[in-house]
Amino acid sequence: MAITREAARGAPSSPALSAQATPTPESARRVAIACLVGATIEWFDFFIYGTAAALIFSTQFFPKFSPVAATLAAFSTFAIGFFARPIGGIVMGHFGDRIGRKAMLVLSLLLMGFGTFAIGLLPTYAQIGLAAPVLLVLLRLCQGFGVGGEWSGAILMAVEHAPPDRRGFYGGFPQLGVAAGLVLANLVFLVIGWFLTEEQFQSWGWRLPFLFSIVLVLVGLYVRHKVSESPIFEEAQRRGKAARSPLKEVLKNHKKPVFIAALACLAQNGMGYIVLVYVLNYGITQLGLTRSTMLSFIIIANILEIFATLYFAGLSDRIGRRRVFLMGTGAGVLWALAFFPIVDTAVPALVLLAIVVARLCIAAMYGPMAALFCELFEPAVRFSGTSLGYQAGSIVGGALAPFIATLLFVSTGTSMSISLYMAGLCLISFIAIYSIAETHVNRPVR
Length: 446
Known about the structure:
With 446 residues, the protein is mainly α.
């Protein structure tokens, strides 16, 4: 049975916003673009780690392990960053609901920038022994803590600045940062591969994307410094509606929307990281495709995903968040079952097709997600609620996905087990969203 709209939101609706808090299209566009730039930079930093984990970290930081064990260890350090994300989301969610969205966006970018740049300077196992993977884990935790507050802060700024009938569309802009950051991350590795020999890449070339990130972080800090605070947050502050303990309030009165949000994230995260991280390694080691070929496929798929995400975000303003999300998860169930059988043909054109269609399914989930999650929570706990739900789903769905995919393939000897795993995640997300009422109505987020 579908729960009511108020149950889906997790709290009674609050009074309408005053005219002072009504956003303008001009400010919405400016903030949406700023959120896109900042999100792209943060996700670039986060994703270059995933690419490096698939391509290089097994030999640089776990050389004493067997190839399979080293790959599992590298993917484990990738997963560790996800476990720091809820902590970052909780801490930044608390202060984002108490002192403002903007300050937390700046803090998240600083933390991510420090962690990423430091990885570029990190000695390897051959140079300092066991201390190398230990330091790698600590810096990955720093990355995870930083990105934990990024997603919710960015979508809240975009949605809360948006006109009432365009919340889905403008909320889609920070969502583009994921695909854009991934394209940039893989493009950097691809270009480095063109100019360096394999020996040079293994020796020092892999460090360049991490070091280059400092330039992007400085650009992101400048852009974020220029945007104004959310008018809805400022109005809530003026009216004394801020929660004293947002996390406590969320856990006490908003458990259902947090649970729904977490389950909704399983498909997008699980399918996403299997396609982007595991398949990159799988295509090279199991199918015999070149690194440049696999990186090129991921870049092409994510360029298409950028346009698709914005399309589905805008579509949710016309037909509803719930309907668009169900389209994405339903298609995801079907395509997951076909994904690895197609990939296993090792025909480059078919491998590309499999990756592209999977990313389009994900775009249909990710496009409306920002507005949908914001509409589940009232302003006083919106940062904390969206952070907790999204990051919890990211751990279960995304953090362990490459690791679980590797274990499934090794233990079963068939990639079909991974297809079934992806289909199961998509089905769970489908059921979660099916159980709620439509959240989009043509009035301000309040």
